[in-house]
Amino acid sequence: MNNGSAGHEEEGGAWSGSAGAEAFAAVEAATDWLLGYPFVFEALSRRIGADEVLVDYGCGPGAVADRAARVLGARVLGVDTSAEMLALARSTAPSVAEFHLVRDGRVTGLPDGCADAVMCNHVLASLPTEEALLGVFAEMRRLLRPGAPLVLLSTDPACTDLAYTSLRVGAEGASYRPGEEMPLRLLRRDGTWQEVRNHAWPVDRLPLLLGSARFREITQRRPTVDEALALADPGLVDRYPWTAERAEPPLVITSALAA
């Protein structure tokens, strides 16, 4: 492991129940905090002002939503399919204004066009079919006012050859068909590894799906370590060598506007 820590792998499935919520909250996510979330916030900062409404679709335990509220000054609403995740987020993400449960594919308590922006981080990999992807895109489009931005953060399922600082994508050297089940291992803060089962969605497939879900001006960006030096926390930048991240950055930001 390139972070120099010793650990063991533990089998895991979906982030379900209170134990799943606590396990997710224990993930370190160093690679995401270097090459992912700062660039999501940067993309949103060009489009959303202070006190405007930002929905974090799939907020999990709320750490990213909480940081977004602090960085952007937005009124952040966290939504998730897991009541246990939302309960954890309510206790650990004080900057998030509200939390809403997704039930039967629809966010409860939020009307059409209520959001000035939506961010969605690593949710798509939990979805098994294109139909499910389109359903999520349609719900995010429902929440957005016309012309408002959507910013997605995804792990490229083709990045299976390298051992990243806080994640391992698939089996080494393997390739996966769209929607195929794929293991993902995530480093916990205690040095152990959590394995979950994701689904492989090629990042170059997302623009077509977003277009069919009534999004426009779709762009993609693969942040690099050199670009992250000006955005990420300096302590994080200095903590690891980021060898694999420099060789082949694994995260992709997809941005679009609601038509």
From TrEMBL:
SUPFAM superfamilies attached to this UniProt entry: S-adenosyl-L-methionine-dependent methyltransferases (SSF53335)
UniProt protein name: Class I SAM-dependent methyltransferase
The record's listing under Pfam families reads: Methyltransf_11
The protein's UniProt keywords, in alphabetical order, are: Methyltransferase, Transferase
**Keyword Methyltransferase attached:** yes
Q: Name the Gene3D superfamilies for this protein.
A: Vaccinia Virus protein VP39 (3.40.50.150)
Q: Which InterPro entries match?
A: Methyltransf_11, SAM-dependent_MTases_sf
Alphabetical list of PANTHER family matching this protein: 2-METHOXY-6-POLYPRENYL-1,4-BENZOQUINOL METHYLASE, MITOCHONDRIAL, METHYLTRANSFERASE
Q: Which residues form the Methyltransferase type domain?
A: 55-151
Q: Report the source organism.
A: Streptomyces flavotricini
Which GO terms of the molecular function aspect are on file?
methyltransferase activity
What is a biological process (GO) this protein takes part in?
Answer: methylation
